[in-house]
Amino acid sequence: MFAGLDLGTSGVRALLVGDNGQPVGVADVALDVQHLHPGWSEQAPDAWTQAAAEALAQLKQAHPKEMAQLRGIGLSGQMHGATLLDEAGKVLRPCILWNDTRSHEQAARLDATPGLREISGNIVFPGFTAPKLNWLAEHEPETFARVATVLLPKDYIAYWLTGVIGSEMSDAAGTSWLDTGARAWSDDLLAKTGMRRDQMPESREGTGVVGTIRGDLAAELGLPDAVQVVAGGGDNAAAACGVGALAEGDGFVSLGTSGVLLAARDGFAPSPETAVHTFCHAIPDTWYQMGVILAATDCLNWLARLTGSKPADLTAPLGDRITAPGRLRFLPYLSGERTPHNDSAVRGAFLGLDIGAGRDDLARAVLEGVSFALRDNLDALVRTGANLDRVLAIGGGARSRYWVELLATILELPVDLPAQGEFGAALGAARLAICGVTGAAPADVMTRPAIAETIDPRRDLVPSYRDAHSAFAASFPKLKAMP
């Protein structure tokens, strides 16, 4: 038996699978996020380990015989978070998360540093790890002076499980400290950002074994004492492993809290000027590129809160089939934006509101706005040389057939819907554990899920949505010009 532990922003998921990769059981434990000031987003690492322990305990209670046969745990997690340890391995402060924008000034300064984009392959986004440490040096210098090690969130879980400090390349690529093409920490990048090589954990491939679970922790959790912990991957790399997106042309679109359009790449082909992320994959000698929008289902959740509704109640009246684009336009920049604008300060808007607009009009505009933003991501990916002829849809938003048909029509790509079951980051983490412990080839383990249905673009509506997207794209400069 193998387990995948996925540390998300809103919770920890533990998935138990057999050596054939078939899910046996799952447990979820919620997490809170602290927002002490506007733009700040933090979590206590102790909350992660408590949630992980609880999730594993739930699996053990529900599946005691299977958990007694546990051989490996693979990890997945939210990227970019700055988890800071002192020389004794103690946490210095709450982790600054991926969606924290306080370091936007530091990010802009670093991004203008000659050579930084060229080596890392990426823009320095405010959410990345390096600018967070620069912010810390300027605003909490006493804490910064005590930083002995910087860990990413899931790597802190590995440290808790094994006592070994380490990382892996798919997550490390989102720090601005990794030479992404060479798949190694860059002394040059570290020096440019005021950091040292000895503050970085050892980096390995996602299938690499970090170590064996600590004996005292195994006893506390009631787990076998020979369980091996495998490095795993950043959340999107792990999700790609979960859906079998490993080779050139494979890709998925994720309609989650944020939105992601990901394409696997056989080689390193950075194009930072597009604001596309170019990261190492969690499997050896492979990379991936993705466009990211910071608010996808978060936009629908926001509208649901304002209207006193549930997200499903907002989408239900729209039915299953799309019609022509609405006149109301929504710009989904509620938390700023990454791809293609790299703008943490921009904020969202409704354009074209009139007195006759109702709740259904607002809901449709939100779905259209998020889908148009993902079309911006596709156009940016195409400019890097990525080639997608279809995508798999995952995430909570993919449960709305209306939204999937809308997305297929706006992307002008067939969208595959997987059959019911586990196929996300937790499954990818478990698959990485299987490969790491048994030596199995990723291509043999990380297969694509069965497809329940393929939603094709509505060819009769593609021209009108193409025009509507052009109007959407033209709105961004006008929004930026507003005081």
What report would you give on this structure?
- Pfam families: FGGY_C, FGGY_N.
- Keywords: ATP-binding, Carbohydrate metabolism, Kinase, Nucleotide-binding, Transferase, Xylose metabolism.
- This protein has 483 residues and is an alpha+beta fold.
- Helix content is 37%, strand content 21%.
- The strands form seven sheets. It has a seven-stranded mixed β-sheet.
- It is globular, with a radius of gyration of 22 Å.
Can you tag this structure with a few keywords?
single chain, 483 residues, alpha+beta, Nucleotidyltransferase, domain 5, 2 domains, 7-stranded mixed β-sheet, 6-stranded mixed β-sheet
CATH superfamily of the largest domain: ATPase, nucleotide binding domain
Round the mean pLDDT to the nearest integer and report it. 95
Proportion of residues in helical segments: 25-40%
Strand percentage: 15-25%
Summarize the main sheet: 7 strands, mixed
Quaternary structure type: single chain
Unreliable segments of 5+ consecutive residues: none
What is the second-level CATH architecture of the largest domain? 2-Layer Sandwich
* Lateral strand order in the biggest sheet: 17-18-16-15-21-22-23
Tertiary shape: globular
Number of domains: 2
